[in-house]
From TrEMBL, chain A:
Residues 1-179 form the TerD domain. Coiled coil: none annotated. It comes from the Bacteria. This is Export associated protein. InterPro entries: Stress/Tellurium_Resist, TerD.
TrEMBL record, chain B:
This is TerD domain-containing protein. Residues 185-265 are annotated as: Disordered. PANTHER family: CAMP-BINDING PROTEIN 1-RELATED (PTHR32097), GENERAL STRESS PROTEIN 16U (PTHR32097:SF4). Residues 185-195 have a biased composition (Pro residues). Residues 196-216, 232-242, 249-260 have a biased composition (Low complexity). Coiled coil: none annotated. It comes from Streptomyces filamentosus (Streptomyces roseosporus). It comes from the Bacteria. Pfam families: TerD (PF02342).
Amino acid sequence: MTVNMTKGQAISLEKKGGGSLTQVRMGLGWQAAPRRGLFGSRTREIDLDASAVLFAEKQPVDVVFFRHLVSDDGSVRHTGDNLVGGVGQGGDDEAILVDLQRVPVHIDQIVFTVNSFTGQTFQEVQNAFCRLVDETNGQELARYTLDGGGQYTAQIMAKVHRAGAGWQMTALGSAANGRTFQDLMPAILPHL
Amino acid sequence: MTAELVRGQNHPLPDTRLELRVSAGHPVVAGATLGDEQGRVAGAEWIAHPGAPVRPGIEVTGDVAAEHRIAVDLAALPDTVHRLSLLLALPPGAGGPVRFGTAAAPFVSVTGPEGAAVATYTITGLDRESAVVALELYRRQGVWKVRAVGQGYEGGLADLLADQGAPAAADLAAAVLDAAGPAVPAPPVAPPPTAPETAPAGVPADASADASATTAISYAHPGRRPAPGPAAPASGPDTGPGAVPPQAGPAGQAEARPAPVAGDATGWTMDERLYNQVWGMFEDLARSVAAYRSARDFADHRLDRAIDEVLADPGARVGGAGDAARAAARATHDELMGRAQEALDRDLAQLTAESEVVEPALPVAYARWDNPVWHAYRTPEEPPMAVRLGDLHLPERTGLRIPFLVRLPLERGLWVDSGPGRTSAAGLLDEAELRRLALDSAVAHTARLLAAHPAGALTVHVLDPADGGAAAFAPLVETGVLAAPPARGAAGVAATLAQLTERVDLLQMAVRGDASEDLPPGFDLSRQLLVVHDFPHGFDDRAVTRLRYLADEGPSVGVHLLMVADRADAAAYGPVLDPLWRSLLRLTPVPDDHLADPWVGHAWTYEPPTVPPGSAVLWQVLGQVAEARRRNLD
C-alpha cells in the first residue's frame, strides 16, 4: 500500500511494540519525457541525483551524494549514480540506504534532496517518483510523485528526523533550483 | 474524505460512535482489547472477543468470518480506557491459512455514523504472523484518534496479549480462539493435569465475564511457560521459540543479534570469505569510530560555543545565572557523549565478539604467530589471497585488533623502517635495538611469505653486504630455504641485482611479445623476493639505479622487494630516492600510527606480528618449507 504524501505531512517511523524501523531506503526513479518533432526518437538524457544531507543542530555535518557515496560513519549509503534513469522501468534508479540505528547520536536530521544535474526542469521528466521503503521487508512507507512539476530543477523531498527515541519522516516537497545539493543549502535551512 | 493510512500514521476521529470494518478475504477472529493509559490490558474483562462479544462501549461479532463489523461508542467506554486495539487472529485448525503471509492482506476501515469511511488501512508486510494488532483508537488529551498499527505476532494471539500486558495471556488467547465458534473444530490438545506453578490461572473455556474465576484447566502449551507477570514486552524474554515478533525493539535486537560466525562474508572459498570478512570488520571499525569522533567533536564544539556565550553575556557574570548556564551546557555535553559512548560500545562489543570467532578460524597466512594453526602447517597447494603483515588498532579500543591483510602477489615492495620513528615506543629503544627488531620482523615477514606459497613458488634472495644480519637471517640460512647464501660485499650486491634486473627485462620482453614459450629452457618461473639489509651500504650508483628499477618494474613480473632500512642512512642521495621510499609500503618494527584506512583516513596504529618468545614456530615452519622445496627440486 502506498501513501501519496502531501506537503508537510509527517509519519512516524516507529512501530507498535517498541520496535522501530532500522533500515530505510530513499528510492528515486524517473524517465526522460519523449521529445516530439524531427529526430523525436532521440530522447534527451536526464540525470537526476539523490542526495542526503546530515545535520546536527542545523549544522551540516556530512553529505551523501554521487561523489561521496558513503557517509564517514557508514550509516548512510548511496547505491551509485545513475546518469539516465528509467533502467528499472518504475523501479528505483538511485537509492540511498539509511541504517537508522547506526546514525551517529548527534545527527538529528537527514534531509533528502533531488537535483537535475543536467539542468532540465522536472517538466521534462516523466514517471518520476521518490519513495521511502522499509528496507527490512521491502514495504513502501511513502511515495511522492515528482512529475507535473514546474520550472524548477531541484526538490527538497523529505527529512527524517529524531522524535523521542525513534525517527519520524516529514514530507517537505519544496521546489528549488540547483545543480547539486550545495546550491540547495540556503533552501534547505528553513526546513530544519 | 477518506484517509488512507500507512503503518504508524494517525488520523483524528470526527465522532465517538464508529464502526470498525474488517475485510480479510479469509476467516479471521476479530476482537478488541481495552487498555489503560500505558496501553496495558488489566484482565480478561477488558477484552471483547467472540466468547464475550459485548463490553461497555464496544460490541464485536461473535464468529469466525471474513467480514466483521464492530460497533464502538467511545463515549461509553470507561474513563480508565485510553486505548482500544482492534486485533485479528487466524483461527487454528480451521483449514484456512496459518499465517498472514500466505493470505490476502486484511483491510480495515473506520466508518462514521453515516457509514462514510474516515480512515482505511491495508495491513501489508505480514509474513509468519498469525495474529496482528490492526488499528488502535487512542485518547490523547481528551481527543480520540485512530492509528494504523499493523504489528504482527509470530507467536499468535498469546504473544499479542502478553505484549499488551494481559495476565495469563496464553490462557486468554486459548479461550478467545476456543470461543470463536464453529469454525474452530477442536479445542487445543488436552492440557497437562498440573499447570506450571508460575502460571496464573486462566479463564474458563466458556469465557464467562467473570475473569477472576479460577480454574484448574490451563490451556498453556505444556512445553511453554506463560509470560510471568503482567508486562511481557515483545522484546523481553520470549515465551518459546518463534515467539519474538519479527520486529523486536532495540533492546531485543541487542539480545537477539545473531552470534558472529567466522567466514560470514561473500566469496568462493573460505579463504576469500575470511579475507572479505576481515576487511568488512576493518571498515566497520573505521566507520563506528568515525561516528563516535564526529559526535565527540560536535559535543566539544557545542560546549565551547555555549561557554563562550555565557562569557560574552555581561548579565551572566554576576549571580548564579552564568554558573547555571555553564552547568547546563556541560550536562548536555555529557549526555551526548554518554549516548555516543553507548553506541560505540555497542558496535565495538559486536566487533570484538566477531574478532573472537574469526581470529582462531584464520588460515596460516592470516593467522598470528601464536595461533595453533601454525603447528599443523603444511605447504599449501596454491597461494592464499593475502598475507597478514601485522595488526591494526585505534586508540578508542586498543584491544580490538584487525588483521592487516595485504593481497598477494604484492603490488608494492615492503619497507621495514629501522630508523627512529615518531612514536614513543621507538624513542625508548636505542638505535641498535631498533635495527635488530626491524631485521627480526623482516625475517618473520619473509618466513610468512615463504610459508604462504606452494613449494618452490617463491625464491628468496638476501643482500647483506656488511654481514651484519647473520644472526637474524639464521632461520632462513640454516633451514635452507634460500636459493643462495646471503650476498656479501659490493660484488655480491651487484651480482644479485644484475641477475634480477636481467630477469625482469627478460620477463617483460616475453610478456610484451606474448612469447612466454620462448624463454630459455629450464627458466625458473617462481616469484622472487629480494630482501635488502643495510641499504645503502655496498651500493654504488649503478646498484641504486637497479634497485629503483626493480621496485618500479618488478612487481608486475613477480619480482618483489623487502627493504630493511633507515631512510636517514641514505640521506646522501638526496631527493633522488624519495620516489623509491614512497613506492614502498612502510612497516615498522614497533607500534606506529602511520597507516590510514581507505574510507575515513583514520591514523591506525600498526603493530608488527611477533613470534612468541622462546617459540620455535618459525624454525619449524621454515623447516617444512625447505623440506617441500627439496622434494620439489628432486
